[in-house]
Please model this.
Amino acid sequence: MTSAVCFDLHCHSTASDGVLAPADVVARAAEHGVDVLALTDHDVTDGIVEAQAAADECGLQLVPGVEVSVTWNKKLVHIVGLGIDPENVALQQGLASLREKRLIRAQKMAEKLEKAGVPDALAGAMRYAGGEVLSRTHFARYLVEIGLVKDFAAAFKRFLSHGKRGFVGVEWAGLEEALGWIHDAGGQAVIAHPARYSMSRTLLGALMDDFKKAGGAAIEVVSSSHTPGEVKSMAEMTNKYGLLSSCGSDFHGPGNKWAELGRLAPFPDGCQPVWKTWADFERIIPESINLLSKV
Ligand code: AMP
Ligand code: MN
Ligand code: MN
Ligand code: MN
Model:
């Protein structure tokens, strides 16, 4: 019996809104049977050096990645970059501009939350930020900490989701702009959790069209935020739009709030995995393991 190679191409560390340090994410991934892991923090690549050192130690293959915040058609869309060079200047300048927007947004969010009766939210959220990225997740942790809401879901539902009292809209990177940074850095672009955007199939199709025209490579067919039905329907869309398939847990930390590393459904028949285009595919996936016939 051959053992399948386990790919998890989407997760977070304390460099953005994850709970574990990059080295601990890698160690946990290895414990959970992940062979190839992409660390894809929101708008930052600062965790990659530490993650790479940990990966070298435990023999896991690390793919340097990032999850870029994009505004397309007035909607928030997340674009994962896989195999990026973290030293690339265009990418780093782009990500720095997004982190700046996050900081300005956080100040405005704190002002709005103050008016909604939530004290000291900026300082409270910043205490949870382990790096340069200030996320709504950090505000959610603070809201739970002070007992205003019982959990994350309630924090987003009552204060942080679109249109709620603590919400501040931002014009993030443009789609072509974000793909430009990722490609400049030698990476492949992947639409993260496409079924999560509450878009009609027509609108999602328009996004995939624009994405493909801008040189996008793949979409996440398998994601912790997709139901089995959505996995199937995203697989169909890869065929229609000529895109490869990726998979990722979107792990943010241990516990039942978040998906676990490496716990991913297989691709439906007919999907072409994003890794089949990787130059070092043969090195990552020994020939003895017939992965393509499995997926
Ligand atoms: P931001 O990028 O700072 O706007 O924050 C978005 C992050 O918040 C996402 O990456 C998720 O980790 C988290 N998030 C968004 N919506 C929810 C939700 N309804 N419940 C829990 N976490 C959420
Ligand atoms: Mn997140
Ligand atoms: Mn995302
Ligand atoms: Mn994510």
User: Anything to note?
Assistant: DSSP finds eleven helices and seven strands in the chain. The radius of gyration is 19 Å. Residues 124 and 142 are 6 Å apart (CA to CA).
